[in-house]
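Subject — a protein and its fold
Fields — amino acid sequence, C-alpha cells
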Amino acid sequence: MSGIKESLERLMNGQIPVSVIGGVVTAVRPDEDTCDVQPDSDDAEVFDVALLNGIYPAVGAQVLIGLVENRLVDTFLISADKVTHFRFTTEQESLLTLQRDLLDELVKLTVTTPAGPSGPPINAPALLALKARFDNLLLP
C-alpha cells in the first residue's frame, strides 16, 4: 500500500493537500495557543490544535480544523462559530494594552481654566467601565 502512496506523492509533486474536518471544541488553552476538538465523525479527539490567527473559540463551538499532510499532529484552527476572545499583538504592542493605557489617560484628563486646572472628567466612571469591557473581548 505504501507504494501507491509514494506513487501518488510523486504524481502530485510531493504536495499533499491540507485536509479539513469539522468538529466541536472541548477545551481551550489560551496560554498555549491551542485547543482540543472532537471531530463530527466521532473519530478520536484531536489534541493541541494550533490557534494561529488570534481567535480563541468557545468550548462547544463548531469549528473547522486543517490537517497538514493529513497528520493529526499538525492541526490548526481555520474557523469557529463562537469565540471568547481575540488577540491582536505585534512584537512591540498589544491592542488591549494600548486601549487600557488610552482610557487611563482619558480618566486623568484635566483642562486648564482661568480658575486653575479642572478636576477629573465627570464621565470617568463610564470610561473605566469601557476599560473593563475590553477584557471581555481581547487578550494581551
